[in-house]
Design goal:
The protein is mainly beta. The chain has one domain. The protein is built from two helices and 16 strands. The strands form three sheets. Strands 1, 2, 3, 4, 5, 8, 11, 12, 13, 14, 15 and 16 form a twelve-stranded antiparallel sheet that branches. A hairpin with a 2-residue loop joins strand 1 and strand 2. The longest helix is centred in the last third of the chain and has 23 residues.
Length: 272
Amino acid sequence: MLLGLGVLTGAQAGWTFSSTGQITDPVTGIKATTSAFSAGNGGTYTSGACGNGTKTISGTGYSACGGTGFASGAKWASATLSSYSGGLGSGSDGSNSPNHAFDNGPKTNSSGYVTGVGNTESLLLSFDSSVVLSSIGIGWKENDADISLFRYTGSSAPTLAGAGATLADMTSAGWALVGNYGDLAIDTVQPYNPVNAGNQASSWWLISAYNNSYGAATTGSVNQGNDYFKVYAVAGSKYVPQGNPAPEPGSLALAGLALAGLFGVRRARRGG
């Protein structure tokens, strides 16, 4: 299948996140390394809107306590990544459920009460080969699961920590928004929730809880403040450049050895 300037191999690849760190696809051997990041939401926390500090995320009306968009000058910061039976999550703004998942909702304290506007959290995937992501598996969610998917298009490895989080900042740093996907379902069997209809490729992908800064929905409906989900798996294909790409150094070395052997045989025959 043609893909812009390249083609996809027939072999499908999948990465199930049973743990943090590095996961290897058993078919292609491509490795994915995982890490988490968060950036502060915009808005001002008002205790009165939260029942003077008595609202919990599991109750009603809590979304009025949260923020919208990103705070002025918000930057991505490294966050703790945790593994659960439902997939990967991050608790940068609270360790209680559902804040232990990736989310864009308000911050909570150890008792579960809302105490701030919270963060927008994201999962960074670094592959050791360029891949075309085609679907995302959600293993757990509460309320909703709206996501934004980015791919990195720069020529050198990105540094997300300390980078601006708004769409304009992301774009200037080499990140391209692939789409905003609303209302993802819990789905732990391939094919998962479909994404990236344009079959775009990258070695670096960012799955973020949706933020209003990222614009309109690509599919479904999206809004900030009530999305809590764990990423169970992703699936896709290895990307191969179209035409006759230059061979890798390893293959050049093997070709050189083969030629040397061929000349050696010819010389031996002439000498005999």
